[in-house]
Amino acid sequence: MSEQKIALVTGANKGIGFEIAAGLGALGWSVGVGARDTGRGEAAVDKLRAGGADAFAVPLDVTDDASVTAAAALIEERHGRLDVLVNNAGVTGGMPQNPTTVGIATLRTAVETNVIGVIRVTNAMLPLLRRSPSPRIVNMSSTVGSLTHQTSAAGPETTGPLSAAYSPSKSFLNAVTIQYAKELHGTGILINAACPGYVATDLNGFSGFRTPEQGAAIALHLATLPDNGPSGGFFDDAGPIPW
Ligand SMILES: NC(=O)c1ccc[n+]([C@@H]2O[C@H](COP(=O)([O-])OP(=O)(O)OC[C@H]3O[C@@H](n4cnc5c(N)ncnc54)[C@H](OP(=O)(O)O)[C@@H]3O)[C@@H](O)[C@H]2O)c1
Asked: Which segments of the protein form a coiled coil according to its record (predicted)?
């Protein structure tokens, strides 16, 4: 087995995902740049390669079965295994999202991408991850999905405006992460949820106050956990986040 680690980052053509790919590339890893738009994916790969990273394009729409199956086949053919999967692709579904008026399409988009997409990609990549000596899965969640934060006195400061689709989709993702950790316990696969903080990206109209590079740090940490590292947790740069 080659020494070089192999990673796949979904939604890596921009924002936090791009910086996660850049960070893993800087470690000398071979990084699959998942992107639903081939042109945007290839542009990101060019940029990462210009920065010295060993990056390759992986056309990947997390909401599309055939696309995800093809992405797994591409990685199998190219590398025969996968060491790290970062489920980063995500959408808000569009704002505002008051529960009394939210569109069903908005709900479906958020859950289809942020939850079902993660399950679809994870299950397609698991056979490749099982061939790694130290497989890691990182699910990009958000503190806005923390029920504890949503119901605390400081809630509005940490969980933002009403969000009937995006926030619950991240709570759902957190719950799913716990279920995976239970099933995968003892296999060597470590799976955790991460919050990047409030980061200036397209997702929030660049209103965040952290840089995408800062947002990528927790994912890089969880992608490179030692074998005795945690699984089934929810973390940001400061440590565990309450569910
Ligand atoms: N920014 C924040 O403050 C913040 C805070 C907490 C958590 N997060 C989470 O961090 C992750 C990255 O967000 P970001 O802020 O970097 O957002 P972003 O700049 O909008 O990037 C989102 C990425 O996901 C991709 N994507 C969306 N739908 C997809 C699909 N169906 N299939 C494949 N890729 C898809 C986008 O591709 P296109 O370019 O094709 O649209 C883009 O590459 C998300 O999971 C988000 O929920 C962000």
From this structure: none
Residues assigned a catalytic role:
166, 170
Q: What is the sign of the dihedral through the CA atoms of 238, 183, 137 and 112?
A: negative
In the chain, what are the domains?
A: 6-240 (3.40.50.720)
Burial (0-12, 13-18, 19+ Cβ within 10 Å), 211: middle
Taking a C-beta distance cutoff of 8 angstroms, is the pair 95, 161 a contact?
yes
The C-alpha atoms of residue 97 and residue 91 are separated, in whole angstroms, by 13
Dump pLDDT digits (tens) for 171-227: 999 999 999 999 999 999 999 999 999 999 999 999 999 999 999 999 999 999 999
B/e letters for 94-114, b = 16+ CB within 10 Å, e = fewer, are ebebeeeebeeebbebbbbbb
Q: Which residue has the tokens 């605390």?
A: 152
**In the structure, which protein residues have their CB atom closer than 6 angstroms to any atom of ligand 1?**
10-11, 13-17, 36-37, 40, 60-63, 88-91, 113, 117, 140, 142, 195-196, 198-199, 201-204, 208
- Decide: 203 and 15 in contact? Cβ < 8 Å: yes
pLDDT tens for 9-34 read 999 999 999 999 999 999 999 999 99
Ligand 1 mutation pick, 8, 91, 195, max ligand atoms within 8 A of CB: 91
